[in-house]
Amino acid sequence: MLKLINGRNWYAACTFRRGIVISSEKFCLKAEASSEEDSSGADNPYFADFQKFHIEASPAQKLVLSIGSAITTLLNPGRPDALGVFGETSGHSALQKMHEKMMASSDGQLILTDKPRINSSTVDLNWLKKLPPNTLGRTYIKFLEENNVTPDSRTPVQFVDDIELAFVMQRYREIHDLVHTVLGMPTNMLGEVAVKWVEGIQTGLPMCVSGAIFGPLRLKPKQRQRYLNSYLPWALSTAANAEFVLNIYFEKRWEQPMGELLKELKIEPFVET
Amino acid sequence: MASLIRRTLLLRTFCRAKRFTCHSQYVHQESAGAERMSNSSKESNETHFGFQTVKESEKADKVYEVFEEVAQSYDKMNDAMSFGIHRLWKDIFVDRLAPSKPCKILDVAGGTGDIAFRIAKYLRNSDGGGITVCDINQAMLDVGRKRASELGFSGMEWLQGNAECLSSIADNTYDSYTIAFGIRNVTHIDKALKEAYRVLKPGGQFMCLEFSQVQNENLRWLYDQYSFQAIPVMGQLIAGQWKAYQYLVESIRQFPNQEEFAGMIERAGFAFVRHENLTFGVVAIHCGHKL
Q: Which residues are recorded as binding S-adenosyl-L-methionine (chain B) (predicted)?
């Protein structure tokens, strides 16, 4: 599959799909070079899902989608797909930076090579339940049960054209609950906003940053006091000091005790003042 | 003798309706589009699903999935995509149908009930009796049934069935058969037309409202741009479904144009087939009679 590098190549890909091939020498050479070096073919573990869900959209369409989905999310927070569309269409440069950060770390590189997925068929939830308390796996299961969420509720990535960046986006979505777990934040408004701050500062995704800025507007006065006094300062310092969340290979750390894990990731447990 | 009288009466009514385009010259003319479609499907058992090629056996399931996904936001999307004009199209369609009591009307692919409710209102029928709504998709019927109970149409019948094979309906049952924005989703349009002919009483009327070909080339370009650029985006924003609405606009391009479709209706046995364009040909009303 040809790597789509910029907007013009969207047109070439569309016409190619319809049976008309339009190409220039420059495009052919670039396509040849990229097909040699990357693994965007069928041997890429993420390839099947990517192919299934990917939608070609022109830059103009992506612009309308990002504005429209931002408005939809603000007006109707019960539309998780709108938030996902906003994230995908507005996050291109942030995704590139996230990819670079992952390539700069050994664990991150491993994640990009293995392309692990987190859902109920790849993660053995029964085995995690049997782990000793205070391990990452056991704490994660406890989090899922207490907050009534499943690892299967993440919408697939549709509007990111590059398969590697699409995987970064998908990975970001799938580890969201694990980020909640290691930060010790519940899924109420306060916890979500704190996680959004950490994710927003570390990833730079406009979706996280705007969630972090607009989310607190919905807080009631008492909650706002707690947010300003405890949650916000803690979230900001954690974001600055902690390891980049996408570089954490959670699947290899299920049995690690939480205390040791938090020390390694430089995360201070939250204490409400 | 009786059929001769029927023919004469219908011819007189037809002549008064000058707005329609007559298709009697197409009775013996093979239309290229329909022939192409039937030839390719005979050879490879494949058909089109929008711009994709799929096995005939799979198309019905794929269409079912599309409508199951869009059922909840179907009406909202119709308003958004057509800027509310679909309501006018449907009003004109029921006006052309001009049902009169007593009558038995079958509305096929009637899903959320738009046509059925309009017919009931036209008949000043307080409870919708005599109208049967048939759809292959249970999710669409559920939405329609809910709307009917909100509007007080308790006498309507809701039937799940396939337009290609209305096995639960006997021959010569209905006075009118209507199908609005449904026939282009059927895998074998000729079968649906033959079934329509079968279930209608002699003298019965077949009416179809469907997207068709825009006659003017410049307007057609504008319409294509709107369809392919804007509609999937609207589908994603309003209904969270890009691919379903991409299928919808592609299926419009795959459907035969006004004349080809009229030829198919005639080959199913209908007489006095005529069509009327609405909105420059964006939609067309086709009408035929069983003698």
A: 112, 135, 162-163
Does the ipTM surpass 0.90?
no
Mean pLDDT of A63-90: 89
Nearest to A81 among B51, B240, B243 (CB): B240
Cβ within 8 Å, pair B51-A18 = yes
Q: Which residues of B touch A61 (CB under 8 A)?
A: 229, 232-233
Cβ neighbours around A94 below 10 Å, total: 22
| pLDDT digits 0-9 by tens, B33-70 | 444 444 444 456 888 888 888 888 788 788 777 777 77
CATH architecture of B45-64+84-213+256-289: 3-Layer(aba) Sandwich (3.40)
In SS3 terms, chain A reads as: CCCCCCHHHHHHHHHHHCCCCCCCHHHHHHHHHHHHHCCCCCCCCCHHHHHHHCCCCCHHHHHHHHHHHHHHHHHCCCCHHHHHHHHHHHCHHHHHHHHHHHHCCHHHHHHHHHCCCCCCCCCCHHHHHCCCCCEHHHHHHHHHHHHCCCCCCCCCCCCCCCHHHHHHHHHHHHCHHHHHHHHCCCCCHHHHHHHHHHHHHHHCCHHHHHHHHHHHHHCCHHHHHHHHHHHHHHHHHHHHHCCCHHHCCHHHCCCCEHHHHHHHHCCCCCCCC
Q: Which of B51, B233, B240 sits opposite A79 (nearest CB)?
A: B240
Cross-chain Cβ contact B236/A72 below 8 Å:
no
Q: Which of A205, A200, A185, A186 is nearest to A269 (CA)?
A: A185
Residue B284 assigned to a binding site: no
Q: Mutating which of A10, A73, A81 best tests the B interface, going by the most B Cβ atoms within 10 A?
A: A81
A166 or A10, which is more confident?
A: A166
pLDDT per residue over A192-236, tens digit each?
Answer: 899 999 999 999 999 999 989 988 888 888 888 889 999 999 999
For chain B, the domains span: 45-64+84-213+256-289
Contact of B243 with chain A, judged by CB distance below 8 Å, is answered with yes
Q: Is B163 annotated in some ligand binding site? A: yes
